[in-house]
Every structure is written in C-alpha cells, then in structure tokens.
Amino acid sequence: MRKKDDEKQKKIKEAVIKLTLHEGFHGASISKIAKEAGVSPATVYIYYDNKEVMLRDIYREYSEEVFEYLLSKLKNEVDGKKIIEQLIRNYYSYINENEEVFHFVDQFSSCPALSNNCKGKSGICILYKLLDDMKDKKIIKNYRNENIVAILFSPLKAITINKNDNDKEKELIEEMIQIIQYALLV
Questions:
Q1: Which of 6, 9, 41, 124 is packed most tightly, with the most Cβ within 10 A?
Q2: What's the mean per-residue pLDDT of the chain?
Q3: What gap in Å lies between CA 104 and CA 132, rounded to an integer?
Q4: pLDDT by residue (tens digit) across 16-41?
C-alpha cells in the first residue's frame, strides 16, 4: 500500500475546493481533481474511498476549522455585548482570510443531501454550549441556538459577498453588530 503524503493531500483539498466552486459538485470529477492537484486519480483514492466521502470529509474538516477559528479568538469575556461583537468580527476575519474555503463550506452546507451526512461536528456543539451558558446567565435571549447562529452569521455573509468598498463594509458591519446585539441581548 502506498504511503500518504500531507502535501499531496493538501493539493487534493485545494483542487476540490477550486473545482467545486467553479464547476459545482457534479462537475468536479475525480479525474479533474487529480489533474488539478497534479496527481493521478489512483492517488486521490489513497486518501478518499470515493467522491462523496472526499467531499464530506473536506467539508467536515473546514467547517470545524471555522468554529475553531471563531472560538479560539474569543477572549474570556463575560460581557454579552463584547462576545457578540467578537464572534461577528472573528467570522468576518475568517471569511476574508479564507475566502475560497468559506465559499466551499457555505456551498456544501446549502446542500442538505450532502451536509446532513456530516454528523459529529464538535465545533458547533462548543458554540451551542457557549450560547446555552449565555442564555443560562440571562445574557442573551432564550432563542433556539440555530436561530441565534443564523442571526449572528448570516448577515455577514450577505455583506462580504456583495464586496462593498472597505469603508462602506466597515460601516455596515458596525451597524450590523449593533442590530444583532439589540436583537439578542437581554
């Protein structure tokens, strides 16, 4: 059996993201992915059993990375206003620093047939625990976590996807932070 090479696997992941964004899930065939990554199709199968497993594993890895990024940059704040602001700013930074990965994760999560197979994501569980703690301490309103996450992060997607000029984008984010704080804080 051939040995796995981290650099080859990284190139495969980059190829998957690039081709999926440009050609969609169905257009990103194993042979195209291999060609883009500069490896043989057989090499792709060393890392992934099939295309569905490959997409799911890469999605899971990068969606976890989003949560790790959000939560690792969250300072030990007890002030709800600051926590909300940090979560929003951290998400905005992640999107800008990892644009292609973000769009891949977003596209994948918009496809229920694929994303519903991705059980066991720990990052969202950690975020939900943070939100539950904030609700228990009466910092934020007792909404469902899914709705809170949507309120926190969906507006930022709309702002960053529209590619406004930097000053306007900063103004929109400042205003969005205030709106979200008003909506969520007790």
A1: 9
A2: 87
A3: 28
A4: 999 999 998 888 999 999 999 999 99
Report the C-alpha gap between 133 and 148 in whole angstroms: 13
Higher pLDDT, 152 or 121: 152
**Separation in Å, CA 120 to CA 35, 61, 124, 126, 176:** 32, 11, 9, 12, 31
For 80-99, letters b (16+ CB in 10 Å) and e give beebbbbbbebbbebbeebe
In which element (H, E) is residue 69 found? helix 51-72
The H or E element spanning position 133 is helix 122-136
**86, 154 contact by CB (below 8 A):** no
Q: Give the orientation angle of helix 51-72 with respect to helix 80-97, to 10 degrees.
A: 140
- Amino acid, single-letter form, for residue 63: S
